[in-house]
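Target chain:
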Amino acid sequence: MTETRTETLPLVDGSELRLTVAEPDSPVRGGIVVLHEARGVTDAVRELVLGLASEGWLVVAPHLYHREGTDEVAGDEDVRDRVSRLSGESVLADSDAAFSWLAERGVTSDRMGVIGFDLGGSVALVVAASRSLGAAVTVSGAGITAPLSDSLPSLVEVAPELTCPWLGLYGERTEGIPPQEVEKLRDAVGAAQVASDVVTYPDASYRFDADPAVAEDAWIRTLNWFDSHLR
């Protein structure tokens, strides 16, 4: 039975990156980096890691708050504070370390994907516009027109620079992400020289698991996206 485990990886800045990883019971099809939500590495993130591993992917989730010694954040005010202190440099360094972890296990870049939810969804697009990968998926990623922190770009700013096929999944009732911003993101990614798709769910908020039908559709679309592009 597939289970998660935690590994520690030293970085060049002297910090130690914690990784939540899961290996499939079947032969490895490729590798996927999971970027966590604003609250950190929650049970929902671990379930996503396990779900992808059960589909044959080698999965690794870097703990983006590791420099502050935190895996998971509780209060809303503390969450906003942690997110505001994240830098583009740090999230790219942590993502790069996760991709290197996959490469050391024989996964080539064209068979690497990245997926993120909430904060992780925003970072996933930034990563996909900065690194050569096979595919990317963003779920409810905010910061579309206004950056989440002073040192992170807005999503519409970097979307035209996407280097790999990208799928965006959004609920139209997501607080803080009005539908018109999602349409601006759709236009921005349309300028990229890669395949892209933006799917919106009219009656969903940012947590699709509140509606089983929406959750199932989003999961199937995610799996199909990786199946189609990570070969």
User: Anything to note?
Assistant: The longest helix spans residues 212-229. The helical segments are 43-54, 76-85, 88-103, 119-128, 155-158, 179-189, 212-229. The two ends are 25 Å apart (CA to CA). The chain has seven helices and eight strands.
